[in-house]
Each structure stands twice: as structure tokens, then as C-alpha cells.
């Protein structure tokens, strides 16, 4: 008997008690018995996998404003290319782009983007719009759980007032709210939705209990009940901020060691033999989580008159790495007596990280742009990225693969396909004096000529 069946079995065997529970608005039981529906608002990297998991247990309505994406999901296609078509099979889910179709739901989960604006401050427009959509259909007894990554206090300070104002209902009397941050790791086939411990929180004790039960029904790794929504919001934001700060330290060390002519990776290998040395590596920090979330925390810190110096410096260092890489390459070309403007550069990988197709906030694109500042033109390839999307987003042409020989080869993203490349391949694409810039430290043992550089 699977988890869901077990839970339903328990609930059904308690049928008489349930009639009472229903009057107490036991939303979990009502969802599990199919008496209430859940709506997932925003079906991207986060929303779709969770919606499909919930659809094993509950009656789910998947809502997204992007009609094209909705049409693909109706056909069993994940527009984010993370899930196979089997993931859509035998699921109790209906996809829609029509807001009135979520009106029949009683439990709403919001998982829309929370990007930054050009001032690198939170852009809450998608979150506010999604909250307003839910507010329009909100009824007495409903639940709204936010999953989007936000700064501590955002749910209560920004979302709840929108829900109250538009619905005319009273928070915690007529409807309850929760916050449950998502830890999904795109491209990671080991840590998936159900086997990552989920932090949940509620606007009062009752909602915490109900929300916890709802998530417990799909998360096999278990849930952690946070003391408040603010605690849950803060816990998510510091997970990514901690990674950003640690990577920034490694990047700064690599800049120092480069000047001292010391191999950073060799230093980290030696230091890593100590039991409490943390294993972080230098690298490009792109994407829409680690490279974005710290700005949300910094914004909130400034609001309460704390200058977030460590967080801001880390962002500054990590955002500066594309320039450092481009500068180093241009100097090395000059050292070899090559004209940067006439040199050919192969850039292998442009997605924000390995084994995903997501190109948002790609720092490799930034490397390409910075190389252009030195007059250096790149040939970009990526087996996972969509060439048209790359061109629309960055004006950079990107192929699946390039043939030929290059003056510079930048190993930018550690896709599995690139890890499999052997010494023969690198011989074929290079001259005797080619510069290899190994951003992710993948090919040190595979190149035996030219100049080898890494962070
Ligand atoms: N992707 C990750 O790895 C990850 C991990 C943890 C947390 N998060 C957080 O989860 C949230 C969602 O991120 P994502 O990566 O899933 O984003 P995404 O861009 O992949 O998907 C968001 C979806 O929301 C839809 N949308 C936008 N506005 C909407 C609205 N008003 N109503 C309905 N749908 C709307 C978009 O069309 C899109 O399909 C963000 O806050 C992000 O920081 C992301």
C-alpha cells in the first residue's frame, strides 16, 4: 500500500469523526477525500513538480498565466524540460490558464517567480499579481500557501494585505495563510521534491497543523514545522545566501592565488583534508536563486537600517567573476602574441548550471559579453540550451556543437556530456598553444598542451 492509499485508508476508517472534522474545516481531510480541490498558481520549475506530486493524492487544478506553457502541460510536456511525460500519467490534475477555473479550489499554493529589478531590488510584481488573482476567488475557509522565495516578513506585509483588500475577507478569521519554501534543485535526479525535507509554517496553530498534514502526504523525507512564517521565509533565504557568501570567498581566494601563482584547486584539496574545512569551490554564480535571493535579504536588511556588508560584498565579488575571466583570457592571448580581435574562442555551455536547459541569469553569457569588451568574439555551444531562447535573451548565437580548432576553449558548464570528453577530443579542437579556461575544474587531466587556466 503506498503512502497515499495508507493515509486515505486511515481517513476513511474514521468516517464518522470526519463529519465533525468537516465542520471544523479540516482542509487536509477534505482534500484527501476529494471533497475539496487544490490549485497550484504558477507551474514552473517549482510549481509543476509539486502540483504533479499533490495530484497523486488530491484533486489539483494547475493554473498558469502562460497559455503556451499550459497547452504543453495539457499534452504531458514539461516546458521547463525537467520532467518526462510519464510524470504526467495517472495524475488527478487539470491544467488551465483561466483564472475563474481556480475559483472552486479551497487550498491555493503560489509558486511564481520572485526576480530582481534593474536596481537589484526585489521585483514583487509577479507575486503581487498572482496573489491578487487568488484574492479575487478567495472564499471563507480557504488556505493560501506561498512557496516563492521572499524576504522575511513579505508574506504578511505584502501578500496578506492584498488578499484582504481584494477579497474583503479577514486574515486568520476567514482565511488562513502559510509559507513553505521550496528546495528543489533543477537537474538533480537524486534530491527530488519528495525526498527533500520541507519547511512549513502557518499563520496560526491550526493552519500550521493543516498545512503540515497536506505536505506530509507527499514529502517522504518529512517536514519541519517552523515557528512562524517569518522564520520559514528567513530559513530559505539564508540557505542560498550562505552558498553565495561561501562561493564568494572561494572566488576572492582564487583572485589572490592567481596573483601569487598558486593553484587554487590544489590549495583547496590540501585544506580540505581538515575535518572542519567547508568544501566550496570558486565559480560563476548565475540562475535565479543563489545569484538573486541574497539581494532580497540585503533589501530587507537595509529597510531595518542594517548594512549587509558581507552579503553585498559577496554579490559584488561573484558578479565580477565574468569580467575577471575575460580579462585574464585577453591578457594570456596578448602574452602569446595573438591579436584578441582575430582569435577564436569556443565557449562550452551557457545554461546557468550543469544538466539543465535554464539560461536565465547565465553568467556565461556575461563572460561572452565581457570578452566582447576586449574585442574577442566567441563561438557558443550547449547541448541543453535552446538556441532561439539564448538569442532572444542575450543576442548570442548558440549551437548544439561547434567543429574546428580554437585559440581559446572555455569549459564553462559541467554538463555530463562534457565530463565524458577525452584527451583526443581536446586535441582535435585545439592548436598546440590553445588556452584552456577550465571554469569548473573538469579537464585538468585531459589537456597536455597549450595553457591551462582555472579559477
Ligand atoms: N527553480 C528553482 O530552482 C527554485 C528552487 C527553489 C525556490 N525557487 C523559487 O520558487 C519560485 C518560482 O520559481 P520557478 O523557478 O518555478 O519559476 P519559473 O519561472 O520556472 O515558473 C514560474 C511560473 O509562474 C508563472 N506565472 C508568472 N506569473 C504568474 C501569475 N501571476 N499567475 C500564475 N502564474 C504565473 C509563469 O508563467 C511560470 O510558468 C521563485 O520564487 C523562486 O525563487 C525556485
Radius of gyration: 25 Å
- Spans with pLDDT under 50 lasting ≥5 residues? 1-23
Number of strands: 14
Q: Which homologous superfamily in CATH is the superfamily of the largest domain? A: NAD(P)-binding Rossmann-like Domain
CATH architecture descriptor text of the largest domain: 3-Layer(aba) Sandwich
- Cross-sheet strand order for the largest sheet: 3-2-1-4-5-6-7-8
Describe the structure.
The chain contains 16 helices and 14 strands. The protein has 455 residues and is an alpha/beta fold. It folds into two domains: 225 residues, Rossmann fold, CATH 3.40.50; 213 residues, NAD(P)-binding Rossmann-like Domain (Rossmann fold, 3-Layer(aba) Sandwich), CATH 3.40.50. Strands 3-2-1-4-5-6-7-8 form an eight-stranded mixed sheet, sandwiched between helices. It has a six-stranded parallel sheet with strand order 11-10-9-12-13-14. Helix 9 packs parallel to helix 12. The longest helix has 31 residues. The protein is elongated, with a radius of gyration of 25 Å. The protein starts with a helix and ends with a strand.
